Amino acid sequence: MHSERGSFGSQSGVILASAGSAVGLGNIWRFPTEVGRGGGAAFILIYLGFIFLVAMPVMISEFVIGRSSRSNAIGAFQKLSPGKPWVAVGVMGVLGGFLVLSFYSVVAGWTLHYTIASAFGQLTAGGQSSVDFGQAFNSFVSDPWQPIIYLAVFLLLTHLVVARGIQHGIERYSKFMMPMLLVIIVLLIFFSLSMPGAADSIRFLLQPDLSKVTPEVILGAMGQAFFSLSVGIGCLVTYSSYFSKETRLVSSAVNVCIIDTMVAVLSGFIIFPTVFSVGIAPDAGPGLVFITLPNVFVLAFGKMPIVGYAFALLFYVLLLLAALTSSISMHEICTAFISEHFGKSRRWTAIVVTAVCLVLGSFCSLSFGPWQDVTIFGRGFFDLFDFTVTKFLMPLGGLLMTLFVGWYLDRKLVEQQLTNDGSILVRTMKPLLFLIRWVAPAGILVIFINELIDIFI
Ligand code: PHE
To answer: Which of 107, 326, 330, when mutated, tests ligand 1's pocket best, judged by the most ligand atoms within 8 Å of its CB?
Structure first.
């Protein structure tokens, strides 16, 4: 059975592919937005707590489920608990995979548009003010066709990688794109820290102002931690089903969490110095990287054209690469399940998944323009999908997976997975199991209940 399935060829492939899934728009687009809204350093502190105490245990639980069953997100639960309702966790994951890929690709499509525009020098063409950039952004995203075309091209790129399989597709491209991404980040940090707003931004990012912490900020931090690490919707169950028996689950998870957190915080250091330099409020919201940043590129261009041009282009290439390694992993949740469950070829299945997401993604894209007034439960498609995945499916999935591994699965099996059948020593076994059994589920539950009360009462 195992030999028929793909598998990752190396430990570095495992870490880079999983980190590729984790590092994405979540880190570079969503994280700075949330930090801006949550008041800077205080948000980051809470976020770090959620990453290491809650989201990382969920990640390790997903690894245990995926590698012990060597099956897709739904098949894994069918194998480990046949005939039991746990399979619902997998079903939620696959549904979540379709939803998240659909709305994510819309923003990735915008990124593609901005990458091309910056390559042609349009963003730094000069004479444009923030008003122009705001208008340009709004008229682009509300256009009925243009963003859908970019969405389709982006989905096609994702499709081409997934259709090639695990080693030749996902692993190969992650191994090439992730190091490139890190190099671009380092270059951008140099640009940014030489901007006049560097000192203010460092204060903003490092000096916590606890008065900004509200229940909403705490909830936002948890949602962000889940989204950023791709946990709770079976994505990492799917990836870890391709891990070999030598893959070290705990150290891989720790590495992925560290890489993901580093990229998020570094993105803050790329974006905020530039934001403070042009005197724009740091809580500009989702338009931050599409409206605020172009101002900075123009500013840099005015001083040294080549620097401004390179800064803009590199930034959007970075965003695009990061989005691509993440969308691949969302696609794989759905493709792996459908192809294994229905016994269809990967190529054929990938086409179905891409087509469905193109339709759903178009709905999301239209909700910024002609379908602005079409709402379900008071939300347009984009918001509805985003909300359903990040505020509902991910926390619930994460909760159920930690309960599954911590309380339902045989403790021996869990320890065998974590120690690779006793061949490695995991010194942190006790605290780790404590996090999986108690801390993570309790943390998620408290916040989740609060959220439900907020929504329904
Ligand atoms: N973690 C990705 C990001 O930060 C998003 C993602 C969510 C990827 C869910 C896979 C599954 O952008």
So the answer is: 326
